Amino acid sequence: MAHPRFEQWVFERKRLEASKAAELEAHLETCEACRNLATGWQGVEAELRRGRQLEVPAGFVRRFQSRLNMERNRRRARLALLVLASMSLTLMAGVGLALAELITRLPTIVAWILKTIEQFRWVGELLGVVGDFLRVLLESLAGNIPALLWLAVSALFSALSFAWLLSFYRLGYRRVEKE
Fold first, then answer.
1. Closest CA to 84 of 1, 173, 163
2. Tens digit of each residue's pLDDT (9 = 90 or more) over 33-63
3. Which tens digits make up the pLDDT trace of 87-108?
4. What end-to-end distance do the CA atoms of the chain give, in Å?
5. Structural domain boundaries in the chain
6. CA atoms in the 13 A half-sphere facing the CB of 104
């Protein structure tokens, strides 16, 4: 590559500006290496123009579309599985939060049960301690989280629940495709 600028111009000859084309022609008259490159490239272009186009084999389009449909179906199945898995995790988180709320209210429930059943008093005391601990923990946690974040989390859970229900609807009423 003695003259990289001119060698590049040989390949872009048809798109060159007039001044660059004139400069290239002047250089080709004096440089044999660049002239050989230009002649060789013109031969390659001529061979490319002369070549015939290949015919598409019979059934190629059908096989290609079939493979494309299979890939599309796999992608949809993976997406549905991902949505269902994320919705399941969201549901488990919601159940966990509901259970945590239930546990915070457990001391009152336990107090009522202890009034009726005295022999299980030690279970109530244990559950009362656990409930108080969880209540204090959740109250301190809830006090440190801004209301706007609670609203955002609620909106996120609502949107995820809607997407989950929508995926059930889509999977339940999906038409059967012929293979």
1. 163
2. 888 888 998 888 888 888 777 777 888 888 9
3. 999 999 989 888 887 778 777 7
4. 57
5. 4-50, 79-172
6. 14
